Amino acid sequence: MPVESYGVWKATPVRYTYEGDADDSISPHLSLYFSDSSSGDGRAAINIKSGDRSESRLAYWTTSQFQHPLTEKLSALSAGFHRLSGEQQSRDGLALDFIRGNLFQRNTGRILPHEIPGPNNDILDQLKPILDRAIAASSGSNTVYIYIFGSEFGDGKGIHNVHMNQGNPARWSRDNGVFQDGGLLIQYPDGHWEGVFIGFASQAVHTDDGPGGDAGQPIPRTGYLTWANFLDPDSPGEDRGRDDLVDSPVVITSALVNPRGPDGQDGADAEWVTLKNRTDKPVDLGGWKVKNRTGQEQKIGDAVKVAGGKEVKVEVPGAPLSNKGGTITLLNSKGLKVHGVSYSKEQAVEGAVVKF
Asked: What structural domains and CATH numbers belong to the chain?
């Protein structure tokens, strides 16, 4: 079953504490204390080590300039916790999904342990400067808002599950689902946003869309590619050192999301995306698809191939690209995500090509 009481808490960061191995050697947390004008003070319990004893490391992504259609909707929220369900827990809603939401470029992630000596080599070294900066910037008339995604505590005084909540191995598979991932988004007074996304190294890179109990389960159910396999060249196993070129040989490099002329009318320019082959060998795109944020798909023609190192332009009438911001996802012939990007309303300038 999916995680319970999923939603987002809009608040102001105040301070944090964290546990070392001496405090909790199995599942330590960083406690982020926050305040909001609706319910007062609260605590976010953020995992800084996995409870999986065979693979306790975390997968970690951060985006210092987060641009996504989510930001406009989040800004409009009042302070406090907002339960996300129904339409808000879907492709076009507010809920996070590490795989389907195109929140970050997955090959930029790192596999990090909990607490080891030395600089810039564990999860605390990454989290502390980001939180310190957000707390320091929120003073006087300047308000920094932090949007914490996860599950509300039963007593309503905090939030947990602030991490990826899909692709879990069998022991934790009951928590798997789609559009229920945790994370942190930080909004600064100058208008820029930052994103922090944490998963577990043992979770799957590809998960099932559903429906029902299959949603969020690893693909395939056994022998699947994990974040450790994908991101860590020293990870043990058959996929050790796997190059992301194997999983993402073709990527989206640009798109015309807002062509000149009235949308959908005769004489208007077509919307298109450019796909680049990152390998030195030709790739057959027959059966591949381009998907927009609402789930509409454009199948790429069976005769379309892209030579090694070259690009091909694909028109996407079946997957209209919103002028208000959106996502663009590339699926291979097996229906697995190969690459994905996002763009904001501000980037969707009429006639301008958005570069990714």
From this structure: 6-244 (no CATH), 248-355 (2.60.40.1260)
